[in-house]
Amino acid sequence: MGVFDLLTSEKNVSIPEHYKKMNVKEMEQRVREIKGKFGERLFLPCHHYQKDEVVQFADATGDSLQLAQLAAKNEKAEYIVFCGVHFMAETADILTRHDQIVILPDMRAGCSMADMADIHQTERAWKVIQDTFGDTVLPLTYVNSTAAIKAFCGRNGGATVTSSNAKKMIEWAFTQKERLLFLPDQHLGRNTAAALGIPLEQMAVWDPVNEQFEFDGELQDVKVILWKGHCSVHENFTVENIAEIRKTRPEMNIIVHPECTYEVVQASDYNGSTKYIIDKIANAPAGSKWAIGTEMNLVKRIIDQHSDKEIISLNPQMCPCLTMNRIDLPHLLWALESIDRAEEISNISVDEQTAKDAIHALNKMLERA
């Protein structure tokens, strides 16, 4: 049983049947009414990957850490209805005041990448890593990880990273220790370390299922230990997708997220964070042509916002992020009406010690922002 099975088994996550029978206009009107009633007491941040039916009501859109920081700065909000996935709402809860309530509209909205590194696996791996390399390894975790993994990094002198600042944080890590452990996305870790000049021959992969290193050479030559995790969306962009674009649409610029595989990043024209992709397209000249390798809801929104450019998905068969898409208009309305009735359905609360340790890891990153 995974972490989200445990979470959802403890809560009634079945949306009441009558929400499924409401029409869209009725739901939209009710959302507007509740937002109007609560005013500044309610803050509704939405991740870039959310559906338009939800994003239309956003008080702010952005990536996960940006939204959590905005929530932390919002001193007037009593309720923060985070339209994203579980780890994002956890980070918001960690960074906000104790009296502010963070709500995830659907507790089933998890993240397969974050689930690929649980705290028990990580503690066992850390023992092997310490036995193998001694006190020469600093842990870094992508913010796309559970609060427990952020806390683990905080307890062990490490930090969190985003796709925007991963280079800066890896450079910092090497001023602290000889080696680093990068959780939970091997692709972001590999792509960033390679961009900094670290050869692939000095990167090992830790397989948490079989509890072993995947590495052909001498382990003592390893500089970067990559956790064997990935984004289920971005790993589905392939070099074959790029080859097809190069063959049929050679005028297209190809831009991808660094959660894609090393081979895809190397074959693309540009790679960078979600913000980088959004800004790159926004600042591109009219008439330019782009194939984007990232989540489909965001690609569709970028296409709608930039009719002066020709934009396609690098993989036209790509589906939106399935877990992110669990947050839909009915679940948003259910969450808001629950607030209106003072009922608790999907509050996110990180225990005090975990939050304290996780803040150490977050602050090490924020101090270098």
Description of the structure:
The chain folds into three domains: 3-110 and 323-350, 3-Layer(aba) Sandwich (Rossmann fold); 114-231, NadA-like (Rossmann fold, 3-Layer(aba) Sandwich), CATH 3.40.50; 234-313, NadA-like (Rossmann fold, 3-Layer(aba) Sandwich), CATH 3.40.50. It has a six-stranded mixed β-sheet, with helices on both faces. A four-stranded mixed β-sheet has the order 1-4-5-16. Strands 13-12-14-15 form a four-stranded parallel β-sheet, covered by helices on one side. Mean pLDDT is 92; it is low at 1-12. It has helices spanning 3-9, 17-21, 24-38, 52-55, 64-73, 86-95, 112-115, 119-133, 147-155, 166-176, 186-195, 239-248, 262-267, 274-282, 296-305, 329-340, 352-366; strands at residues 42-43, 45-47, 60-62, 79-81, 101-103, 137-142, 159-161, 179-183, 203-207, 212-214, 224-227, 253-256, 270-271, 289-293, 310-313, 347-348. It is an alpha/beta fold and 369 residues long. The chain starts with a helix and ends with a helix.
